Amino acid sequence: MKAERSGPTRSTDAADTLVDRLAQPSADHATSRDASRHHLTTGRTRTYWQDTWAALRVRPLFWVSLFLIVIFLGMAVAPSLFVWPSPSAGNPSGAYCNLAQSRQGPSSQHWFGTDVQGCDYYTQVTWGARVSLLVALMTTSLTLTVGLFLGSLAGYYRGWVDMVISRLAGGVFALPYLLGAIIILSVLTSDEGRRLWQVAAAMAFLGWPALVRLFRSTVLQVGSLDFVQAARSMGATDRRIILLHVLPNAVGPSLVYATMSMGVVISLEATLSFLGVGMPHDSTSWGVMVAQAGDRIEQSPHLLFFPGLYLTSAGLGFVLMGEQLREALDPRQR
Amino acid sequence: MLCYFLRRTLNMVPAFFITTFLLFAVIRIIPGDPAQAQFGERRIPEELRQSYAERYHLDESIPRQYVRYMADVFTLDLGESVASQRPISEIFREALPRTASLASLALLFVTVSAVPLGILAARRKGSALDNVFLFGSLVLLAVPPFVLGLAAQLFVAVRWEFFPVSGAEHGLRSYLLPALVIAASMLAINARLMRTSLVDATGADYLQTARAKGMSEGRVFRVHALRNAILPLLTMLAINFGHLLGGTIVIESVFNIPGIGYRVTRAIAQRDTTMITGISVFLVLVCLVINLMVDLFYAWLDPRVRHEG
To answer: What is the C-alpha to C-alpha distance for residues B129 and A119, in angstroms, rounded to an integer?
Structure first.
């Protein structure tokens, strides 16, 4: 595993490689998981997940990140819990706009001040969580599905299947992430009609190669272990072997990947929206809010500060959780 | 080693052509025609459209255009920008040094801060200091670079007037603040990687052996642990390149530095297809070459890599 892990990294993208690297310490899972499963029957030893939970709950940073994640998920699912009274559904902040009160600083009436259009900024920023988390969730699940599928195919069948998939992944990997996202989004979608799923799909398209690598190497390692050979000799089908014996070993790393990726994508979506190739101008996205504040940030720093604060806290919640999970799931760290 | 070198180099070739062809095809189906884009809302005379099509071979099929384009690229002719009618290589000569100075300055900042921080955190693994570093680096990782850039501009440049606010007219001084912002966003990854590889290296058996034969702790660290932790630093180089590139695209537009990254966003806004193609082909090539160099260096340092598969 060590050689594999520190082997040549054909990586060009920082976000993915970070995630990729942080999600890696899985070599020992194959054995440790199996061992814990075995002990389960005796009823004395804790299971792998009980172990993980025990390692997690003593960490203060785990609770901090959980708190942040719960807050922002709540904000995304039910913004009306945070904004009171709740604004009209169609135009989240419509009821609170008063052009005469444009760009006012924070006050008791408008906690976060007002934006350029004179809308209550607290309402706007709170509603921004929905777009951000939705994009992150869509991107992450799409990347995981595609990466899991192609990666396990490549690792299990090897030969030409592996070659085709790896070549393709290598080709996409050679494309610098942000540049690729900017080109794809600006070329394949128009600025006005850009949809949320298109932004997510573009990021997933650039993200899957990293996961293919992760799953491919997991499957390659596990595929040669004794219990897989045993299952094969007993006549188990390929599908059964992959689903029941090989993939459970990738659950830990995928979980770490998914959490880290949520955090990274939140920041990326905002960056793309800020550059004008992400969410359309009329959407309540944190990146769009900062972009619309434009040159007026100097006079009204609150227009940068509050979306920036929310962006950072939401991203931090997920990245921190990913880090905690990574350490808790790694048997060597216990 | 030679065999490995050849194999890796040949591996790069399909990646280059797959990526550039995909890019080329995608850019050619850009909505709206590049000729029209230069005229905005006005009607464009038919002869002019014809001459545009002829000049940029817009009527041919995409694979043919691609082959023609690649043939030009290999004679170092990147064509001319549709928007400004200037040769792209000339624009490159102007923009590249700016991006290069920004990127190398950022790399310098991140190296001088990440390596000592990583070493410090690794030597006091699990201490409060280690945890503070971890938390701090994750916060820096979670702040999107454009937020950090705008905030830095606002406080350090506008309020306190330490640095020029934007532009590239003030020589090296105008690159300092943007480079610091890029470095800050890369610090987390670098320091963490340094720490992790050092911690991995310090847990190795050969360190116990070295201690057992009576080597001093400092010497064990310098001679055995640090040296083996250098390998992952190479991986860091490749990772950093991608991050630097993303960083310069965002930060150059925040700070109005007319380098390559700034040109990318400008070209996208102007639908300058030849410029976008030129920049992306160039960057893909640079990216592949850097990765190749890292891999080769890796193989040179670590024999296990070159004998693997």
So the answer is: 43
